[in-house]
Amino acid sequence: MIDRHALGERLFELLRGLVAIPSPFPPGDTAAIAGFASDFLERVGYRVDRLARKPGIVNVVARLGAGPPSVVFNAHADTVGVGERAAWATDPLAATLRDGRVYGLGACNCKSSMAVHLWLAEETGRRGPPKAGEIVFTFVGDEENLGPEGLAYLREAGAVRPTTLIVAAQTRNRLVTEERGVMWVRVSARGKAAHAGAPDTGDSAILRMHRVIAAIERDLAPRLRGRRSANGQQSTLSIGRIRGGENTNVVPDHCAIEIDRRILPDEDFDAALDELRRTVDAVGEPPGTLSIELLTGTPGFSAPEDGAGVRAFRESIAAVTGRPPERLNVVGASDGRYFARDPVEIIVFGPGDGANSHQPDESVPLDELVDAALIQAGVVARLLGIRMEST
Prior knowledge:
Blueprint: H1 4-19, H2 31-43, E1 47-51, E2 59-66, E3 70-76, E4 96-98, E5 101-103, H3 111-127, E6 133-140, H4 151-157, E7 164-168, E8 178-179, E9 181-190, E10 194-195, H5 205-225, E11 236-244, E12 250-251, E13 254-263, H6 269-281, E14 290-298, E15 301-302, H7 308-321, E16 345-349, E17 363-365, H8 366-384
Parallel strand pairs: 3-6, 3-7, 7-16
Antiparallel strand pairs: 1-2, 2-6, 4-5, 5-17, 8-15, 9-13, 9-14, 10-12, 11-13
Helix pairs in contact: 1-3, 1-8, 3-8, 5-6, 7-8
């Protein structure tokens, strides 16, 4: 039986080592912390690759065994910046344990999960590879930048091909099995510039965009408000940015809005984009005066309730905590979104509360790290047969 106190001490030791290595965005350099993780993983018996497409953003892929099934754990190694140093009561680069909480930059987001994953790798490495399949640990950069050089790059390069992907996030050890997709779209309007003293000689792009916005709010938004998933997720649309015009005394010849559209897992990504196009086209503006551009986006995902990973988490959470798993619907999107189009079971899980990250005195309860470690050890045992004393 794994002793919780000893496990807590080991997890704090690992987290302290990680917090001491700066990896803030900007600039997002993860070379040093990737080196720390790589050396550790090689020592405990893993085959390790360091992969980088952009200088400084180094990603670690460590594997034991050979898939399938391929159980892939992921955590990001970059953090936000320190911000105003005087706002911190503790040294942000020296993990401090106080009243059962660990304080430090990244202690919650996401180095707590890194520490848990390193412990899992250490424990599984002692027992040798699974009889069938592989266990893989990935530590990536570019997450805080929402960029393509981290887990997205590993997928693109074929460095990981998960059967089950477990993405670390601050869920307070609650289970996330569903995530909405994200679509960012720019709608542009063109008009004709003129002197503001004679506005009728021009064609205001801002007024044209006003008609588009009114149509979106009148025709599309009510439909989206009526769409919910079985788990209670809401289909949404938000206009987050508007830009137009050159000067107050000039009728504007250009205007653009940028839209954030959150898509339910059972909504088709392309159909959602087409729905927005039809709404804009229905405004009836002259041909060529409106255009729509997809900026970025990925569909949503939903792990099946009878999936091997979901079952393993349900059983392990109940075994460790004595309670059924608590589910969480998240507002944001994790790096799991990059695999949403693939036949992958995606689960988001980890210690910490997002409300305690990205701010001075960021912290995480040490007991949550212990529970997260024991729960995920149980998941590994159930999925790959690598049993530890507590599982």
